[in-house]
Every structure is written in C-alpha cells, then in structure tokens.
Amino acid sequence: MYKSFSMELAGRTLTVDIGRVCAQANGAALLKYGETTVLSTVTASDKPRDGIDFFPLSVEYEEKMYSVGKIPGGFNKREGKASENAILTSRVIDRPMRPLFPKDYRNDVTINNMVMSVDPACRPEIVAMIGSALVTTISDIPFAGPCATTQMGMVDGEFIVNPSQKEWDKGDLQLTVASTAEKVIMIEAGANEIPEDKMIEAIYKCHDVNQTIIAFVNKIVEEVGKPKHEYTSCAIPDEMFAAIKELVPPAQMEEAVFTDEKQQREENIREITDKLAEAFADNEEWLAVLGEAVYQYQKKTVRKMILKDHKRPDGRAINQIRPLAAEVDLIPRVHGSAMFTRGQTQICDVVTLAPLSEVQKIDGLDENITTKRYIHQYNFPAYSVGETKVSRGPGRREIGHGALAEKALMAVLPSEEEFPYAIRAVSETFESNGSTSMASTCASCMSLMAAGVPLKAMVAGISCGLVTGDTDDDYIVLTDIQGLEDFFGDMDFKVTGTHKGITAIQMDIKIHGLTRPIVEEAIARTREARIYIMDEVMSKAIAEPRKQVSEYAPKIVQIQIDPEKIGDVVGQRGKTINEIIARTGVKIDITDDGSVSVCGTEAEMMDKAIEMIRIITTDFKEGQILTGTVVSIKEFGAFLEFAPGKEGMVHISKIAKERINHVEDVLTLGDKVKVVCLGKDKMGRISFSIKDVPAEA
C-alpha cells in the first residue's frame, strides 16, 4: 500500500514514499529532499551465513551520473567502480548503524542507496544517510533503531543545518552527526581550526535536529513498520564459557593478555586456543565457534581489567601515551619524507610536489569540485601486522584512513597562489597496533614541512578509547588506544588539530551511543595529547616548514599576463607554447585568468621561458632593447625572432652605421643580435634598428 510522508527539515521539505517502488525488498523508500531524489533499500538473507564470526553488513552508495545530467566518461559510458566520495559516504552510513544490529546476527544484510537526481541545495549524501536508517527501521530486519543523521556547516561564524553543496564546500565546518533518541552514535568532521567548545556546540545542535527526524521516522513506523523477523542466534553457549573458565581460569587469561608486546600476547592466546581445541576435540559444535569464544573471553577480561582495576594491557596509565619518536629526511631524493612512531604503530610518509597540471581530476556529482590539488593516500600492507597476504589495492578502510588524514591537513595548506603545486602525500604503514590514521596525520604534517610546503600551522592527531559498564556514569576514557583496546573497547574517537583548534574528527563506537560527558572528556583528552605530541616530539624533529623545496623537487614560478594575450602564448594549435617547452624543457600551465606557472628543475631554463612569455605578451615600445635571432634574410632587410611566434624586421639601412649593399655582408642566419625598437614607421609597422642600439645596452 502506497503512503507518502513529509516533514520540514532545515527549511526544505523531506518527502518519503513507502510502498511506491521496490516491493520485494525488506524495506524500501523513495526520498526527496528539495529536488534531490534517493532510492534507499535494505534486504536480508533468510539464513545466517555459515562459518563466519562477524555480522556481514554491506552498505552501498551509488552515484548515477544522470542525476546531474551527465554521461559517464570512458569508452563504455557506464558507471564504473565507486568513487572515493561514494566509498566514504558508505562508511559514514555503516558506522552508526552497525552497532544497532544484534551482536549475534549473522544474516547477510545489504543497504543500497541510489542517487537519482541532485539538487545542489540538498546534498544527496544526507538523504542517503536518513534513508538507510529509515528503511531498516521499517523493515522486518532486527534493528535497534530508529537513528538519524544531520550535517552542519558554518559560514561567517554562523551554523547552517544541512548546508547546500556550495556552503558545504566553502564553509569552515563539515560536520556529520548520527544519533539515537538518547545519544550520539557517530561523529565525522572536517574543520578550519574550530575551537573545542564550538565543535561541541555544533555536535549537539545536530543531535537536537536528529530528534525531530527520529520523531518523523517513528510516525512512519507506526503506520507501515513490519514486525521484526526471528533469526538463528550465533551466541556462544553459556555452558561452553563455563567449560573454558574451568580450563583457563580468569587469572591465567589476565596474565596472557597483560603485556605490551603484541606478538607475545598473540602467542599466549594461540597456546590457550590450542589447549582448548585439544580439550574439546570430541565436540564439533564447540570447535566450530572456539575462535569466537576465546575472543569473547579476552574481551571480557580486558574490559574488566580496565574498567574495574584501571589496568591497561601494556601497563600504561589511563591518560598515558605510548613512547613516541619522530624524524624527517629518512628517504633520500624524494621531495619530503618523515616517520612517526607511537609504540608499535609506525608510519613513513613521503611527499611529492608537481605542477598544477597534475592535479587529480574528479568526475562526480559535485559540479563545484572537479579537481583535487592535495591528495593523501594511505597503504596498509599485511606485513605491518605480521600477516601474509597479497596486496589487492586499497580497500574501503585504506581509502577512509587516507581521507581522514587528508581532511586533517586541509585547513593548514597554503593557497594555490601562495604555493602553486599539486601535492601528493603517501603514508606507508610499517607497523600497526592502534590508530595508524592518527600517526599518518603526524607523519604527513612533518613530511609536508620537510618538503617545503608552507603550512599555516602544525597538525597532530590522537585517538581515545572507551570502556563502559552497566550505567551511563560507569565508564573510563583511555588516551592513545592500542589495537587490543580498540578491538575490545567501545569507542575509537580520533581527533586532529592545531594549537588553535580542531581540523578533523572521526568517531566509531560499538555501543548504542555516547553521553555528552563522554564526548566532552574525549575531546578535552585528545587536545591535551595532541599539543604534547606537537610540542614535545614533532617540533623537535622539524619546528617549521623549510623555506625552500627540495633540490629534487620541481621549481615553480608564477607570472601574470593579460588574459587577452593567452592565445599569443599558446599559438595556433599550441605551436608557440610547445616551441617554448621544446627549447627550455620546462612545463607551462596557463589558467583562464592569465596566471602562468612555469615549472622546471633548472633556474636558467625557467628564466629563459619566462622571458620568452614576457616578450610574447608585451607590446613593442619605442626605446625597448631586445635580443633576437636572425631567421630570414631578404634584399631589403632581416627578420629576427625574439621569442617563438614573436618576430620583427630590421631594414637594411638600420643594420650598420656605414652603408652596406647586401644584408649578408653583415648578418647570417642564426646570428643573435641586439636591437632597439624605433616605434612605428610611416606604414604603421614596428621598426627595429641594430645601429642605433645605445653603447651601454
């Protein structure tokens, strides 16, 4: 049965059509926000997937190019693999929703969002976020919803709820917050050094808006919601836990996990698992879930140690950061390099500088952004965690971590006018045991400074964890979580920033939300930690950006020309500019406003190219001294080339002080001579002279 529901959201109408399309999905809705249209669906398998110990949730965000009136590029004219924006949007949808499914649910679930039309005033990402939670809540799939998501921008110091694409791109804040009816469950932010108190204010403004969306969803559920289906629980049997504790008492498990060496801990757990496998050899049902049972036992042990005993597995204090180290220039010949180590987490970052012609081109739904000048990429090879696995290229996690570190540094990058380079930073994970994305932020910042990129401020990042008890006020926040505390804890709260304020946040949780005191404490704790990292570690490796780029980096000089003269520099079919490039070996980029970037490694050749461009774009004036090359000799005079496409003629009477009968008596092809411009002759032509060049010229 088709029903339509509407609400006013941030000054625009959100309409949800139920029962109009996709009747065979477990849940489906056609959402319109302004004129942005997104189809959200959710489906689940009838039975759990065999042989897995995780919840198989897949979230897709499909960007259809017809939604913005474009035909896809490439040969087959069909949408290909998901863009980075689509992957990051899928991750933002996944993170708040995953904890709200039952922990023992193993049925495959797929959430799909298809963008069908885009109104630039209503970003499709926020529609997909709302739609995903809505269709799952009204479906028969077990889900502890509803939840809702709001985005917040800031322009000229004023908050904007669900900003337009232009406000989102140009503003000082890009904040996404998901909430349940009681608590915040996800935060994602990029910011232009926003103070901590301002960020907290924005987070809870989003939380308040989310309550109005949740009320709207509840109304829809009352009318069209389906009863939740029964499912096969994959929980570990209580009697198995009891048997495990008989064989491995809690004190023995504590001893196994209480070490700061990841490899030793893994070996201890391997020995315990082998012991239990031998004991349960005759029980196939228990053997099938033994790995998950040991994992759960470790989790209970670590959480009890932290929450009740205030003991961390590596013996650190609750707010203590692991040992830190930082260095720059460890890789020779690259344009910039740095390594940052925090405990058993180690990142090496390498920066490459290039002309602006090498910016990344983007073919997406946002017509405001077609190129990307700063590119941060993150790699996570198997050897960084001691595993053997062939690399298949970056996955969603790698893309997400790279985007977070990229977002962290965007606020402090110089403008193109200040630093006319395309910049690529690549973070290579050498070792991983907790929050490599934050180590990547620190390493990237140092590497950029080592490369001579004039950053406006230093940026560092750190992650806080959380372990909660049975009540809202029974919790403990941990500074600088390692892998074990991330796996078994309830939160990974990553914050990057400068001394002045926050540049990025990414918060993942495994529980049904955070109270405001937890959010405030985590933000305060990360500020304290990142300032310590900047002042006591990073600044001692490199205190400020280098004044010059590396000797191996291309040098770029920018000049401004009259936009009307761009055609003269380019020449017919690019003949003139290609000739300049061929003669000097430089790269030349010209923008529509007349900005010319000359890029090369030899200063002499760059100066030569710039001089050619200046000559081409400057009108000849009386008294101007020029050097030209003889390119043609006629009976009446010689033609000189001053720059590709820029020529002039010296009459035979102006070649020598004495009378000559033939031009060839004085000049030959290829001669370089100085001339002075005499202005226009009687015919209106520009005239040049060799004999009238001043002696001092």
UniProtKB/TrEMBL annotation:
User: Which positions does UniProt annotate for Mg(2+) binding?
Assistant: 486, 492
UniProt-listed GO biological process terms: mRNA catabolic process; RNA processing
Which Gene Ontology terms of cellular component type are present?
A: cytosol
- Broadest EC class assigned to this enzyme: transferase
Listed GO molecular functions?
A: 3'-5'-RNA exonuclease activity; magnesium ion binding; polyribonucleotide nucleotidyltransferase activity; RNA binding
Q: What is its EC number?
A: 2.7.7.8
- Superkingdom of origin organism: Bacteria
One Pfam family name from the record? KH_1
Principal location class: cytoplasm
Under the heading NCBIfam families, the entry gives: polynuc_phos, PRK11824.1
Family per record: Belongs to the polyribonucleotide nucleotidyltransferase family.
Q: What name does UniProt use for this protein? A: Polyribonucleotide nucleotidyltransferase
